[in-house]
Amino acid sequence: MIMIDHEGCIKCVGCSSVCPKNAIEYIGERMATYPELCIDCGLCIKACPANVIELFPKIKDISQLPPEARKKYNV
Ligand code: SF4
Ligand code: SF4
């Protein structure tokens, strides 16, 4: 799954436009992610001009994120 630092996101939707699985969507004035759809391909990271996307391979649920990541993303 990916996590997005929403503070730094400029809402360009570049990430969602390259995602092959529709795992990112602009909704409610920010980018929403769908971990169950993500295949960890990393294309969104390469497409992000603000460098605010981080990949956590093989993780499918926020509860599985490392503690430091949960703290960073406030989840
Ligand atoms: S890592 Fe790939 S599948 Fe997952 S959200 Fe990014 S572009 Fe989509
Ligand atoms: S590509 Fe980066 S800056 Fe653009 S909407 Fe996605 S996360 Fe935000």
Topology:
Layout: E1 2-4, H1 14-18, E2 24-27, E3 30-33, H2 43-47, E4 53-55, H3 67-73
Antiparallel strand pairs: 1-4, 2-3
The structure holds iron/sulfur cluster (2 copies).
Describe the model.
The chain has helices at 14-18, 43-47, 67-73; strands spanning 2-4, 24-27, 30-33, 53-55. It has 75 residues and is of the alpha+beta class. It has one domain (2-73): Alpha-Beta Plaits. The strands form 2 sheets. A two-stranded antiparallel ribbon has the order 1-4. A two-stranded antiparallel sheet has the order 2-3. The chain binds iron/sulfur cluster (SF4) (2 copies). One iron/sulfur cluster is lined by residues 4, 9-15, 31, 47-50, 52-53.
CATH class: Alpha Beta
Helix count, DSSP H or I runs of 4 or more residues: 3
Shape: globular
Percent helix, as a range, is 10-25%
Average pLDDT figure:
97
Give the cofactors and ligands. Answer: iron/sulfur cluster
Q: Give me the oligomer status.
A: single chain
- Mind telling me which CATH architecture this is? 2-Layer Sandwich
Strand content: 15-25%
Please name the defining characteristics of this protein.
single chain, about 80 residues, alpha+beta, Alpha-Beta Plaits, two-stranded antiparallel sheet, two-stranded antiparallel ribbon, 3 helices, 4 strands, about 25% helix, globular, binds iron/sulfur cluster
